[in-house]
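Retry 2 of 3 after timeout on previous attempt. Resubmitting structure tokens to design endpoint.
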């Protein structure tokens, strides 16, 4: 049975065999994965040791103290937080062996091809089609030909692989005719176009798929059961966005508190009261996230992650708004409006104006706040669901 002492011993052995000061970053990350110290709760041979998820902190602390390199989770967050748990749960042995190691080391970046121009909040209404080339049955080895458009795709300009959901049977209700695939973003027919945002950057993209060929071996789950697979991705996505581990007064509330301490000449009683309220709410959200992570050690995340993501979006917008107001004219400055395609989002390393503008997207990405409120109401609180007239209607017969 792997315990904290065993993990410390294994970590010490890794550091002795691959000293961070003299070992290349990628070589060290590969060795860490092979030693089972990447994500200790994953199975042996796939970067883990079948250990409790809670023990990951033991490994991370030892490696941080030794100055070991990290895998830049901000850059590969979609792979770590969404693709990996889905592949682990639904992937074949061959898929797990092929994708998980380069995903974790950051050698291959992933993106998520879910949202569409006509199916954003109603994701199950997606229209991107995947048609079996030879008309054969599942497992016959035939390729799928995919045509459609995806939108709001973070990191598509960096990605080698994408998790993709597409409609494979338009003759059944919308949730039942979807299948889940792994798409090679370098294949012919994949076109990525930048979407410039209110920040001036093009962190998001729109992706056009024209005759893209995907082998049946890159399908996750059974044909027509893509919505079930996608639920694992979506629940992990919301935890990844709203439930990231951080210390007390970490994240955006820490920046706001630092501004308050550094600029006493700008303080007012009203701003003080609002900051105190936001500080308490941020701490409650942090502790709730810690409890959620402890619950996750016993299984897959549930709909509670939607509540965490809701809280994160609201707090990010309110804290960034408070900061801009507190800093007065200094809060209106913006360092660079140059059109660029960044590797990730930096909520704490940029100025207040960036945080204020970028936080507007938090209530949209990863599921809109309105949709998440419905999920919490129906699946957490057990309230009656809203009437759905399209529940038993074939997708092809739905009005558009």
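Retry 2 succeeded. Sequence:
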């Amino acid at each position: 049975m792997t315990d904290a002492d065993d993990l410390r011993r294994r970590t010490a052995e890794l550091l002795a065999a691959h000293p961070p000061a003299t070992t290349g970053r990628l070589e060290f990350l590969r060795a860490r994965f092979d030693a089972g110290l990447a994500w200790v709760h994953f199975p042996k041979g796939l970067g883990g040791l079948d250990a409790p998820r809670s023990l990951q902190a033991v490994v991370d602390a030892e490696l941080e103290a030794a100055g070991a390199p990290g895998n830049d989770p901000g850059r590969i967050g979609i792979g770590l937080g969404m693709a990996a748990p889905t592949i682990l749960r639904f992937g074949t042995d061959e898929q797990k062996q092929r994708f998980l190691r380069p995903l974790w080391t950051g050698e291959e970046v992933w993106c998520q091809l879910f949202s569409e121009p006509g199916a954003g909040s109603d994701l199950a209404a997606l229209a991107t089609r995947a048609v079996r080339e030879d008309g054969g049955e599942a497992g016959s080895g035939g390729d799928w030909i995919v045509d459609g458009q995806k939108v709001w795709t973070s990191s598509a300009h960096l990605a080698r692989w994408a998790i993709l959901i597409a409609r494979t049977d338009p003759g059944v209700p919308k949730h039942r005719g979807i299948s889940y695939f792994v798409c090679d973003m370098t294949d012919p027919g994949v076109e990525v176009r930048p979407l410039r945002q209110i920040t001036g950057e093009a962190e998001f993209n729109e992706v056009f798929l024209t005759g893209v060929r995907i082998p049946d071996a890159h399908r996750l789950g059974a044909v027509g059961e893509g919505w079930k697979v996608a639920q694992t991705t979506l629940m992990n996505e919301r935890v990844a966005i709203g439930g990231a581990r951080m210390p007390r007064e970490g994240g955006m509330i820490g920046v706001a508190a630092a501004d308050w301490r550094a600029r006493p000449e700008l303080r007012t009683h009203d701003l003080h009261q609002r900051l105190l309220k936001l500080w308490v709410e941020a701490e409650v959200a942090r502790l709730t996230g810690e409890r959620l992570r402890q619950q996750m050690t016993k299984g897959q995340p549930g709909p509670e992650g939607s509540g965490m993501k809701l809280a994160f979006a609201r707090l990010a917008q309110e804290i960034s708004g408070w900061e801009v107001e507190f800093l007065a004219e200094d809060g209106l400055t913006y360092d660079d409006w140059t059109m660029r395609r960044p590797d990730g989002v930096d909520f704490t390393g940029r100025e207040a104006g960036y945080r204020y503008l970028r936080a507007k997207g938090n209530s949209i990405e990863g599921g809109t706040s309105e949709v998440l409120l419905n999920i919490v109401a129906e699946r957490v609180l057990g309230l009656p669901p809203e009437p759905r007239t399209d529940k038993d209607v074939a997708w092809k017969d739905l009005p558009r």
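Attempt log closed. The beta strands are 110-113, 129-132, 143-150, 161-167, 178-184, 190-195, 204-215, 219-220.
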